[in-house]
Amino acid sequence: MASKAIPSETQRAKLERKERAILEAARTIFVNHGFDGARMQEIARRAGIGEGTIYSYYDSKAELMLAVLQQFWDGLTLEAEDVMAAEQATDFFGRLRALAHYHLNTVIVNADFINLTFALRRNNSEVSVSRDHLRHYVAVFDRLFLRGQDRGELRADAVLWQARDIFYGSLEYSARSIEMTMEADRSTRDQQPVVDDMVALFRAHYAAHPEGEAADGTTLAALSRQIEQLTEKVDTLASRLS
Q: Is residue 3 classed as helix, strand or coil in its secondary structure?
């Protein structure tokens, strides 16, 4: 019996595979050398193609950098949505824990590239990740928070943007602190206490309490101090990135 012919790779598949190789190589070179120090020739060499081939995909280094940024942030959004879709917990705080785990680990693992992203936002008007891509990513938290309010799990008067800043700002500050003090093996550092504290903070401050339930003054005072400390951390991080 004659064997069936194995279909060859389509032209479109070849082009897509080559573009993925270019983007992967470009990300590595941009991280290692920065945008200004990166050379298209070196990116082509790492991707295993001729330099002229890159220009058949991207007209300039700036356009290539923008494509790398878009791929990165769109990829994070899809991953975060997958985390939420796969999470078995149905309550807000269980799902918040899963998202916090994902975001904290993501910022640590991708610290070099995220630092480059924000450096470009500060220093290079030609190359900066679109705010739309960042909005799509943080919208994963927004939908989770609004769902918690709709289900009556969270205070109806809670302000979304404040909760979002506390969530992302404090986790990113903690991730940078962890990343700066870690050994080469990033997987050995325990991230659980950071996530536990984040969930506890949201539970204490944003959970909807039964009507007429009395609040413990000591607990509220401690919570107020914790929020003030988080606010100071977020302000410090914002000043570093501005």
A: coil
> Which DSSP letter does residue 154 get?
B
* 91-106 confidence digits (pLDDT tens): 999 999 999 999 999 9
Cα separation, 148 vs 3, whole angstroms: 57
Helices (H), 87-191: 92-109, 111-123, 131-150, 160-181
Give the span between the Cα atoms of 5 and 195, in whole angstroms. Answer: 53
DSSP 68-111: HHHHHHHHHHHHHHHHHHH----SHHHHHHHHHHHHHHHHHHTH
CB 14 within 8 A of CB 100: no
What is the rounded distance in angstroms from the CA atom of residue 40 to the CA atom of residue 117? 19
9-64, pLDDT tens digit by residue?
688 888 888 899 999 999 999 999 988 899 999 999 999 999 899 999 999 998 99
Record the tokens describing residue 155, joined without a space. 């205070």
* pLDDT tens digits, 66-79: 899 889 989 999 99
How large is the angle between the packed helices 61-86 and 111-123, nearest 10 degrees?
A: 130
